[in-house]
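Please, structure for the following, as C-alpha cells.
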Amino acid sequence: MGDTTNVCCVCGGIIIGFTWLIADYESFISFCVITMIIYAIVNNTNKKKDAERYKHKVREDGHKYSESKKEPDSRRFSLDNYEKITKTHIIKEKFPSKKNFKEGKKSTAKKEELDDFFRYLNNKRWLKKDDYDVGPYLSDRNFELFASIISNTTSTLDIMTNVFDGKLLSEMLWPIRNSGATVRIITRRIRNEEYIKKFMKDYSNISCAYRRNNRIHAKILLRDSRLMIVGSSNLSDASASKTGFFYDANFVTKETSSIHLAQKVFDSVDEVSDKTKSHVNTNFIYSREGVDYLPLCLKEYFEKEKKAITIVMSSGLIDRQVLDRISEWNSLTKINLIVGDNWPTNELSEDKIITFKKLFEISNNPKTNIRVLPKRKNIHAKLYLFEEQKIAVFSSQNLTINSWLSLLESGYILRKKEHFEEILNDIKLLPKSKMDPIEGEFTEVEKPESSWQGSLAQKKISVPWNFAEIDDEQKMYPLKSHKYYKLMVENKIKKTKHSYMSYSSNIEREGKKVEKKSNEELRELNYQKYGKASITTLRKRFR
C-alpha cells in the first residue's frame, strides 16, 4: 500500500470522528460509504503503479519481451546503433561438447546434454512475444524475428528451408508446445535432429512432420495461412543468431494473394502434386520454367533499370557465368555487387577459384559495368535492388548456376518507395572493407561428398514441375575440368578455451559465469568457427 493510501486513511479517520460529533447517524453512514469507495480507487491506483514499477524492473533485468513496450522501428535494420538496443545476459546452461561444433561433423548430443537443454527450456520464464510489423528486416540477429512469429501460431505452421537446426527449432516451438498446432517442414538438410525428435516425443502435443527434398533452397515460413516470412534466412544457428552472425534480408507480409500462392507452392511440394494451376499475378515469386518465374522474371527489371542496380550477396555464392548473364541483360547500367569481405576456404572447385579471382580483379579495377563493393559483414542476404524503379526483391536465390537453374527458390517483390529508401540507406551504412588476393598453397582433393542426408528413395522425390534447366537457351556450364582444391592454411590460430563457445550463448561449457565478451571478441570467435580463412593470407583483418 502506497504513501497516498496511508495519508487518506489518517485524514479519513479524523473526518469520520468529526462527522460523528456534529452530524446525525444517516450522514455518518453515507460518509463512511463514500470514504470506502475513495479508498478502493486509491488502492487500485497504487497497485497499477506497483505493477508498472515491476514491469520496468523486469525490462531492466533483461527480459526483452515485455508487453508494455515495443522495440523501436529501427530494430528492423542492422545499423550500428542496434547494438545499444540488444543486451547480452549470462544464462546458466550446460554447454554441449566440443565435437558438436566441428565443421562438417554430425551432431551426436549425449542424453545428459539433451536433458539439460530441455530442463533449461522448462525452467526458463516465457513471456508473450509481440508480432513483428509487416515490412523488411535486414539484420544479423534474426532469432527474435522468427521466435516471435512462431510463438503466436494458433493452428498451422509450414516451413520450407534449405537447412534447419533441431535444437534451435525446439526452442522456438517451446511456447506453443501445448497448442495442438500442426507443423510441417520441408528441408534439404537437418542438424541436431535428435533435439527435435526428443521434443516431439517427450515435451509437446503438437503434430510435427518433416521431410527432405534435395531440390529445396527456398526459405518460406507460413503461419496460420495469414502471415508469411520470405527471404534468405534458414532456421539454423548462423542465420537465426541471437548475437549476430549471418547478415540476412527477410520480408514479413500479410498480403493475402502472395500468401495464398506460397501456400499452394508448399502444398504442391509436400504432396508432389501441382496445386498452383496457372501463374497468378502476386508479389510472391518462385522457381519454375518460363519467363514469369525465377530467375527469368528478373530479366525485365534488369533491362528497364537505367540508374543503378544493387545486389547484396555472399562472395562464396557467386558464379562468374551468372555474372556474365546479368551483364548481358544490362551492359550499360551500373551494377553494385555488395559482398562479404571473406573468402570461403572449404573444398573449392577450380571454377569457384576462377570466380574469386574475377571478383578480386573487379573490386580493384572494374572492366565492366559491375562494381564489387566488399563490406565487413558475413553477408548471407540474397537481395536485388533497382533504384530508378524503386523495386526490391527479397529472395533465397544465390548467383550460382544451381540456384538459377536447378533449385526451388522463393522471393517477394517489394514496391513501396518508403521501404526501398530505408533498405538502400541501411546497406550504404554497412562498414566498408576490402578484399585481398587469393594466396597460399592449394592441394587437390577428391570431390566432396554430397551433403544429402535422406534415403535414396527420398532423393528421387522432386517437385511437380520443371525448372529453367530444361531450356537449352538458359543453360550455363561450369568448367569441364571440375577439380577440387583445399587451402593449406598458414599461421593457423590457436584455439583458446573459449574457441568452441557458442556465439548464441555467453557461457562456458560447464555453465559457469564468464565475463561478457565485447562485440569484437564475439565476432572474432564467429570467424574462427565459420570463416576458416578470415585471419589467414586470404584476408587480412580490416580495422
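Confidence is low (pLDDT under 50) at residues 57-107, 491-517, 527-543. Residues 438 and 538 are 5 Å apart (CA to CA).
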